[in-house]
Amino acid sequence: MPVYFLYSPTLPELPTIDNISQTSKDSEDYYAASDRPTEQTGIFTEKDVCLILNIKKAKWYSRWMGTIPDSKGDKKYVMLTTVSEKVIRSKQIHWNEFIKRNIDLPTTKHLVDVEGIAVLQGRFHLVQELHVTESLESRLAMVSIRGETQIPMHLSEVIQLMDGILDGMNVIHSYGFLHPGLSTKKIILAGEGHIKLYDFCLAKDARNVNIFNKSKLSRSLNNFAPEAMYRNEYSSPADVWSTAVVIWELLTGKPPFPTGQDGKDFDDLLAITPVETQVTKYEQLKNKLLFQCWHLPCPLRPTISELRESYTKIFDRFKEIAMRFHVVIYTLL
For the whole model, what pTM was predicted? Predict the structure, then answer.
C-alpha cells in the first residue's frame, strides 16, 4: 500500500515582484538523491532556506543546492528548482500546478522525494532530497573502459535497474506526468541496483519541454522519438520510445541507433531499428514487446504499463527458475 505525504497544502499567494536576477553561469547537469525517506512536506520561507550553489541555469529553469532545517533543527541539504518568470507568465510551463501534483505523488522508492515548497523572492521552488551519487550513465561507463571490463554488471543488477525504471515511469504516467529527455544521464543511482527518476513534467507541458530539450541535445533517435524530433509532438508513446532506448543500453551497453541516421521516413526507420538477435549478453531478458516500441507507428506502441507487465513476467520466471535450482547466474556486460 502506498504511503502518501502527510501535508498536501494549498499554495500560498505569491507577492508580485520583479524577476529574480540569476548571475551564475551555465553549469553541467547535476542531481542526486538522499537515502533518508521523506515523511512529510512543508512550506519554507527565505529565513528557512540557505542557497549555496547555483548548479544549473538553463533557458527556462534554475537549480540550486541549499539547506533547510530538518525535524531535529539541523541543516539538511536539498535541491531547489524553479522556472523563469518569462516561462510562467507565458504559461509555457504550468509550474504551480506541477508543484501541487508533485506533492500529491505517493512516496515511492523510484522517484526523487519531495521535501516541500520554498517561496523565495516571490517565486515557488520545488524542494527535493539531495545526496551526491552517480547516474546510470556513469554506472554503464564503469562496465567497460577501453574494452576492458572494470566493474561488471550482473544479471541480477540489470533486472533491478530495469524493474525500477519501469516502475518509476509507470507511476509518472499514472499521475499525469511525462518525461521528455529521459536518458541514462537523467537516472540517479541511489544504491546498488536502485534507481530514482526526476525532471519529469506535466503531460500538457511535455511539448514545450521537448522544444527546450531540442535546443540543447543532438537530434538523434537515441534522444527523441521521431514524432518528437520532427513534429514537436510529445505524448506517452514518445516516453515509451525513450524508455526502450534506456533498457537497450542496459542490455547491450550502447545506444540502439547509429549516429547520422535520422529515421525520418518510417521505412528508413525500420531498416536501422535494432532487432532481437542483437541482444547477446542478457539473452534471458529478451522481450519482443521492447522492439515494438520502435517497430510500430506511434499510436500502436505498447504503453509503459504493458511494457512493465511483460518484463515483470520475465523477471518472475527467471527468479522462479533460480530459486528452484538454488543457483545464482552472473552474466557480465
Answer: 0.82
In a domain, 330, yes or no: no
Is residue 92 domain-shared with residue 238, that is, in the same domain?
A: no
- In terms of Cβ atoms closer than 10 Å to its own Cβ (0-12, 13-18, 19+), residue 26 is exposed
Query: pLDDT of the chain along its 333 residues, tens only?
Result: 333 333 334 444 443 333 323 333 333 333 333 443 334 568 999 999 999 999 888 778 999 999 999 888 889 999 999 999 889 889 999 999 999 999 989 888 999 999 999 999 889 999 999 967 899 999 998 886 655 667 788 899 999 999 999 999 999 999 999 999 999 999 999 988 999 999 999 999 999 999 999 998 988 999 999 999 999 999 999 999 999 999 999 999 899 998 766 556 555 666 677 888 788 888 889 999 999 999 999 999 999 999 999 999 999 987 776 666 655 555 544
Considering the domain boundaries, does residue 332 fall inside one? no
Instruction: Please report whether residue 179 resides in a domain.
Output: yes
CA neighbours within 13 Å on the CB side: how many for 26? 4
Judge if 117 and 159 occupy the same domain: no
